[in-house]
């Protein structure tokens, strides 16, 4: 039976999940970088940064002119302009904050294409989950909510729901999107993903150690000491597993798209 189901009633919720996932999938090195970026931003907001701090406080606005009512058709389902705009605004805000620190402007054309492709891929995975008869119980949704909240340092699901409400996403909308995510997770779990090899683990560790060595002394003037491989092994394995899973998902989406009827209107 044809489905008109979109990314729930508000893609803001899905975009919120995308943003949370991006925060939770980084390795220890990425987390340290984000912390340093946040600290630098705080120092500038307090007047301790460079003389151009006031200009950095003014966030750029996304260009969402001429967005059609329907940005893409995926088989028998539409992706609306409203859904696309909500997702794009969330992604743009994240990129704009990063660009303030790097000094590089946001490549809006590339970001718009990436956002649209993400939504098309999300819809294709959802359609496959429904075609395969996957189901998501309320218990599954509760567990996923708890997992997302915990992985992003939140003390409770209520805190996650409060953050969603601040972005004008109701609990019902969020639960609908999380249910959709649970279904997609089942598709992802069905994919054949290779485990990281010992060679890949060692190479990743060596690259990290080389980077640490090139950074030289820490803020206290002492040489930075790189933890040994066995201490970092769990993080490295998780990082590589996530990378391989993402590659498998992307390849699967590309295959689904080849077999699907996809018409883009932007």
From TrEMBL:
It comes from the Bacteria. Residues 33-45 have a biased composition (Low complexity). Residues 1-24 form the signal peptide. Residues 27-68, 132-152, 192-235 are annotated as: Disordered. Residues 136-147, 220-229 have a biased composition (Acidic residues). GO terms for molecular function: peptidyl-prolyl cis-trans isomerase activity. Pfam families: SurA_N_3. Keywords: Isomerase, Signal. Its EC number is 5.2.1.8. This is Peptidyl-prolyl cis-trans isomerase SurA. It comes from Garicola koreensis.
């Amino acid at each position: 039976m044809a489905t008109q189901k979109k990314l729930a009633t508000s893609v803001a919720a899905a975009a919120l999940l995308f943003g949370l996932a991006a925060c939770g999938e980084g390795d220890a090195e990425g987390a340290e970088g984000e912390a340093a970026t946040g600290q630098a931003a705080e120092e500038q907001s307090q007047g301790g940064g460079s003389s151009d701090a006031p200009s950095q406080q003014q966030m750029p606005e996304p260009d969402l002119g001429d967005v059609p009512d329907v940005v893409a058709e995926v088989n028998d389902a539409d992706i609306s302009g409203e859904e696309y705009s909500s997702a794009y605004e969330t992604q743009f805000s994240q990129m704009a904050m990063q660009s303030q620190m790097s000094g590089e402007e946001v490549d809006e054309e590339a970001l718009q294409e990436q956002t649209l492709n993400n939504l098309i891929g999300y819809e294709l995975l959802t359609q496959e989950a429904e075609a395969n008869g996957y189901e998501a119980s309320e218990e599954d949704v509760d567990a996923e909510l708890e997992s997302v909240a915990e992985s992003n340092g939140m003390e409770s699901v209520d805190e996650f729901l409060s953050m969603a409400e601040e972005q004008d996403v109701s609990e019902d909308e969020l639960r609908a999107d999380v249910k959709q995510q649970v279904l997609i997770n089942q598709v992802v779990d069905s994919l054949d993903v290779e485990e990281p090899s010992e060679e890949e683990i060692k190479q990743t560790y060596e690259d990290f150690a080389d980077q640490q060595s090139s950074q030289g002394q820490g803020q206290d003037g002492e040489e930075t000491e790189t933890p040994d491989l066995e201490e970092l092994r769990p993080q490295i394995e998780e990082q590589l597993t996530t990378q391989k899973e993402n590659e498998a998902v992307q390849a699967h989406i590309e295959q689904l798209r080849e077999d699907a009827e996809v018409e883009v209107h932007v």
